[in-house]
Design a protein that fits this description.
InterPro entries: Cro/C1-type_HTH (IPR001387), DUF5753 (IPR043917), Lambda_DNA-bd_dom_sf (IPR010982). The protein is an alpha/beta fold. The protein has twelve helices and six strands. A hairpin with a 6-residue loop joins strand 4 (212-217) and strand 5.
């Protein structure tokens, strides 16, 4: 995403928060009073007003109803979602990542976007868009790196990751790129930035044979999920569906190696790639 569009996006989020504060003040309500009316805490309202937190569509609609604002918060929210530099089907999930308190991911074939190095992301982008311009590739990689910045923020979510061993064995970008990618993952595990486990190939069938799965929990709204194939994705917000997805993730966790054994497997794969890179 270009610098100008980033600045515009941030300015519009600030507009959303400023408008919320002005409408609340005009009615003489405190943040706690408004929060009770839309089923969130007063502190959460304060974070929205300062653009520290990003709103959700459901909350935007409730605010329009309570504040009688003729749909302004919903319209601005939808405009901002359109500005996100992702495929249409992923935009809502990408936004939810930024406000999640916990993210649990299962990746069957590709390193999750929040963990990808720039070179790994570049290799994936070129493989899926072989005729893309260099500008498109660079914009895609930059967007991927910008998205991963939430893991460096002071308010970063608790992050759980389950990788299938296939992720370690497919040499995306070649041995040097894979060595760097796996070494970075191992370093982040050792820094306790995430908890990671691996499902060995020898396990055979597992609970999510259909594809990747992400679960997200939040401070003031119900949990949600996201699942994706190579061509489309789906946000999961129906409580029964989310509960089923959570059970699936529990089964995946049960099939995975313990964290220490998983880290050893990653280290071993990284060493193999590094050795191969030195001899080629």
């Amino acid at each position: 995403m270009a610098k100008g569009s980033k600045e515009a996006k941030l300015a519009t989020w600030k507009f959303w928060g400023d408008e919320l504060r002005e409408r609340r003040d005009a009615l003489g309500w405190t943040q706690d009073e408004l929060g009770k009316k839309v089923f969130v805490s007063g502190a959460y309202i304060g974070q929205l007003e300062t653009a520290f937190r990003r709103p959700q569509l459901e909350l935007s609609i409730r605010l329009d109803q309570v504040l009688q604002t003729d749909g302004i918060f919903e319209r601005v929210y939808l405009n901002l979602i359109e500005m996100l530099p992702y495929a249409q089907y992923f935009k809502h999930a990408a936004h939810l990542e930024t406000v999640a308190t916990r993210i649990c991911e299962f990746a069957p074939t590709v390193v999750p976007g929040l963990l990808q190095t720039a070179e790994y992301a570049r290799a994936v982008t070129i493989a899926t868009h072989p005729f893309a311009t260099e500008e498109f590739v660079e914009e895609t990689v930059t967007s991927r790196m910008d998205r991963s910045k939430i893991m460096a923020a002071p308010t970063r979510p608790e992050y759980w990751v389950i990788l299938h061993e296939n992720v370690l064995r497919v040499p995306v970008g070649g041995p040097a790129v894979m060595a760097e990618q796996l070494e970075q993952i191992a370093a982040r595990v050792r820094a306790r930035e995430l908890l990671l486990t691996v499902i060995p190939c020898a396990t055979g069938a597992h609970a999510s044979m259909g594809g990747m799965l992400t679960l997200m929990e939040f401070e003031d709204i119900p949990p949600a999920g996201y699942t994706e194939t190579g061509f489309s994705g789906m946000l999961l917000d129906d409580p029964e569906v989310v509960q089923t997805a959570q059970r699936t993730y529990d089964l995946l966790r049960a099939a995975a190696l313990p964290p220490e054994a998983s880290l050893k497997l990653i280290d071993s794969a990284a060493e193999d790639y590094r050795r191969c890179a030195r001899t080629t």
